[in-house]
Amino acid sequence: MELEVRHLRALCAIADTGSLHRAARQLGVSQPSLTTQLRRIENALGAELFRRERTGCRPTLLGASVLSRARPLVDGMSALVSEALAEAEAARDGGPLLRIGATASRVIGGWLRRLRVGLPGTDISLRVDVSAHALLRSVEAGRLDVAFVHEVEGSPLAIPDGLRQRVLLDREPQFISLARDHPAAACPVVDLGDLATDRWMVDPTVDGEWDGVRRVLGAAGLDPPVLHGDYLTAASLVVLGEVVAPCQPTSGPREDMAIRPLRDDPLAVRLLLVSRPGTDTAVVYGELEAAYREAALGAASYHQWLVRHRSPLAHTP
Fold first, then answer.
1. Distance between CA 258 and CA 198 in Å, rounded?
2. Nearest 10 degrees: CA dihedral of 124, 13, 37, 3?
3. Are the beta carbons of 9 and 3 closer than 8 angstroms?
């Protein structure tokens, strides 16, 4: 049996819903059919990908590893189809087209909403990718007009010659996500030393992410066990107390998870808007800036951090 995109999509649906029954409904197939398909996939890979429990399905370590590689492929296929449809539609209508790319961020939804108001009549397509370098290559090749990317501190991006860049934020601190009952969650600011015995989880497909975390942990004299996986899987493991994971400070509040800043902000990224020469980015950048401020003020821990650091972002203009 050869794995296909539909098989990977099924694995992602099971992980996202936590249940074969709910995943089957989402995919529009019967539960017995999905169960049989999962069994065939596991037989092909030679091991279980999910533990079947009374409360649902939970990825095994191998399952988490497979999912971390499957998600970018599934997302990439979805992006390919949606972008092709958008470009074909724009070509038929002859209207303006804006093709934007972004690494994952809570800001994207607000940015898109604002762009549709600020650029009426423009057909706006979106591609989200874990790799900033992949997005930059797409801008260079003319497949995207602009890309909103983050550059991990200490791991500079290779921005192709000729592309324009504007800095949205020179240094955005990265916070840590913890289970609600983690001892460190009781503190407003977390010391790295308080996480020395925890398992960490990072996504190795995010450019510079693993190198940045490894560098910071090494500088602190820490060598905790590290799991590799996508951050959707990481969130589910954080809630269960299995791992801690770096996260964006704009991450929304959750009742089952604590999000805290790290003392002295050792992990950070630079936020950039990169564009093709000749692209008018005035509205695009302005709406991105407004969407970022909205997301920052809506995240309690980050808002408090901004106030403590007397950032201009802490106040609505």
1. 15
2. 50
3. no
**CA dist list (Å): 85 to 49, 88, 91, 102, 285:** 34, 5, 10, 19, 25
The pair of structure tokens assigned to 126 is 């979106």
Q: Which residue has the tokens 């961020």?
A: 105
Give the tokens for residue 124: 């706006």
Q: Which residues pair with 59 in a beta bridge?
A: 50
CB atoms within 10 A of CB 137: 15
Vertex 315 angle, CA 314 and 317, to 5°: 140
- What are 42-96's pLDDT values in tens digits? 998 999 999 988 878 899 999 999 999 888 888 888 777 766 766 666 665 566 8
Residue 161 DSSP code: T
What is the Cα–Cα distance from 11 to 132, expressed in whole angstroms? 25
**Start-to-end C-alpha separation, the chain:** 58
Lowest-pLDDT choice from 84-88, 171-175, 196-200, 311-315: 84-88
Walk across the sheet containing 146-152 and list its strands: 123-128, 97-102, 146-152, 268-275, 164-173
CA proximity to 178, closest of 254, 223, 241, 255: 241
Rounded to 5°, the CA angle 114-119-125 comes to 80
Instruction: Considering only CA atoms, give the Rg of the chain.
Output: 21
Residue whose token pair is 């107390």: 241
Report phi then psi at 167, rounded to 5.
Answer: -85, 120
CB 299 within 8 A of CB 249: yes
CA angle 305/307/312 to nearest 5° reads 110
pTM confidence score: 0.70
Tokens 């936590």 locate to 18
